[in-house]
Amino acid sequence: MKKIYFIGALALAGMSLAGCNDFLNDNRFPLSDQIENPMFWNNGMNVENQINTFYNDFLGYGNGTGSGDFYFKTLNDDQCGRREFTDWTFVTVPSSSGSWNDPYEEIRRANIVIGGLANSTLPASERDNYMGQARLYRAKGYFDLVRRYGDVPLVEKALDPAEEAALFGPRTPRAEVMDFILEDLKYAASNISDQKNANKFSSDLANAMIVEVGIYEGAYAKYHLNDAARSKQYYGEAITAGEAIAGRYPICADYTSLYKSLRTDGGGYTALEKNPEIIFMKAYEQGVFMHSIVDYSSASDGIAGLTKDAFDSYLFIDGRPAATTTLDKTDAGVADGDAALSIQGLLDVRDQRLAMTTYPNVFYPGMTWTGPNTAAMYSQTGYGVAKFDNWTFSANDAQTANRGYNCCPLYWGARLYLGIAEAKAENGTLTDADVAKYIKPLWNRAGIDTSNLNLAWLANMNDPANDMGVSSLIWEIRRCRRCELIMDDNIRYWDLVRWHQLDKLDTTKNPDIVLGANIANAPVAYDNVVGNYINCSYGRTRKFEDKYYLYPVPGDQLDLNEKLTQNPGWK
User: I need a surface site. Which of 41, 377, 446, 468 has the fewest CB within 10 A?
Assistant: First the structure.
């Protein structure tokens, strides 16, 4: 069935989904006349084809010339925007929004499959397998909604116009929706027939998603709601689900292989699906289904580069932060040739994930630099983004939109391990054995000295840069998560939300998030600096208000349903 998934997903990925853009219509009308026929659900191929449409919603590196959830999401403290300053996702209440409509459209698709399978004559195991996959996907849709809006209407089945009361119902408390999500994922973990399969929904994927849901709700309950019991419960769910599968996804030797590998062997790497660390991936294929992340992250008209704040977050290879390292902690590059500023020396003494994420040279407007297969490019912060570019691609493929074909990890070992470690640390159950199992492999891969690494080392690092009001242990796990998963799947933004740290994106209080490289020694002058650091704020600021923890409910939804209420602070 793998081949069916791959071809089906690629063929459908570029299609626009027909339908009306409001909650009522997304939950009222059937997908097609055919699906109203109960006999449709007695054919496994029909159900498989419906399941395959769900894969399109995992954006990965993007579809064609569109953007995805890796690199392109710049509302964080890791990147400073491409061509313009990144403001909050919403600063006013929108008249309508795909952030609300699209998940409900996909939830309706899942509910149609679930409803159709309820009376299917397929063998029980086959029926339950498909049911589990549909419920996994429904859980994803509701998780997207709860993170954005908090309380949202919970619709458990595909509705019709006769069910007006349900169509015009109020928002369901977020805790109830999160419990519903967890129930769906547990069902999926117990009933999906594939235990592991990098290209298909599997029971291991369901467990990996429980880890993500668990650490999100665990943190939200602790840091937003001060609900210790619920926090402990959800962190516990993450630990149980994560430890059930962690042994099957060992950390691979090469960090870059997670992001640069192809669907088949080649391009300097084995196929991504063969990487033992991969739980679930998005497949791309040259000439069939491609993306544009390589082109956009190596563009000649400016890219969203790493910030000073992100650069400074990486440990030194002695396992210490800048405040306590004995290694050279200068952050100024050195002139290298007529028009280049080398930071190779800076990278050599840092966590090697940094060297695998950026380039060894700084480049900015007025001083471009040409990479292994790129045109002369510049970064808004001076720091480049090398993480997603497979350097064996031709220059034409690397520099042209919709010509990239390296595959994208969606769930993988490092993401899983860091979720387990965080949950255990938050619940006070992390041990030296856990540090050796879940943190040490990541430090080893990053070239960081692990000779002192244990629970006490992390708990006593006491980095003065810790500005989140958490213990040294929690801070160091958060640091590792940030550096390991930088620019991946919009993880950093949602981490700041759940940790109640979204104020870190206030540029008036945290100026380093709009600063870039130190160009004091640059051979080409640049006047857009603060001190010696590139300034990529475009003269704008981003100020935090509590209302930004939740998106505003779109105006058309409030007009359609008088029982809906607006989120606090939005008018």
Answer: 468
Spatial contact of 245 and 207, defined as CB atoms under 8 Å apart: yes
CA 357/CA 256 separation, integer angstroms: 8
What is the set of domains in the chain, with CATH numbers?
198-283+407-500 (1.25.40.390)
306 and 357 in contact (C-beta within 8 Å)? yes
Give the residue among 528, 568, 529 at the shortest CA–CA distance from 552.
Answer: 568
> Can you give the pTM of this predicted structure?
0.94
119: burial class by Cβ within 10 Å (0-12, 13-18, 19+)? Answer: exposed
What is the helix, strand, coil percentage profile of the chain, to 5?
Answer: 45, 10, 45
Q: Residue 368: what residue type? A: T
Q: How confident is the model at residue 164 (pLDDT cuts 50, 70, 90)?
A: low
Please, are residues 140 and 57 in contact by the beta-carbon 8 Å criterion? Answer: yes
C-alpha closest to that of 304 among 36, 546, 64, 80? 80
Find residue 408's DSSP bridge partners: 282
pLDDT digits (tens, 9 = 90+) for 255-293: 999 999 999 999 999 999 999 999 999 999 999 999 999
List Cα–Cα distances, 487 to 66, 452, 472, in angstroms: 17, 29, 24
- Name the helix (H) or strand (E) containing 133: helix 124-149
pLDDT tens per residue across span 495-541: 999 999 999 999 999 999 999 999 999 999 999 999 999 999 989 99
The alpha carbon torsion through 277, 283, 284, 285 (nearest 10 deg) reads 100
Q: Closest Cα partner for 372 from 355, 360, 354, 380?
A: 360
- Least Cα distance to 448 among 475, 483, 497 occurs for 483
Query: How many angstroms separate the CA atoms of 455 and 257, rounded?
Result: 29
Q: CA 86, CA 365: separation in Å to the nearest integer?
A: 19
Q: Tokens for 364? A: 């900015």
> What CA–CA distance (Å, rounded) separates 8 from 201?
14
- pLDDT per residue as tens digits for the range 367-388: 999 999 999 999 999 999 999 9
Which pLDDT tens digit goes with each residue over 174-193? 999 999 999 999 999 999 99
- pLDDT exceeds 50 at position 33: no
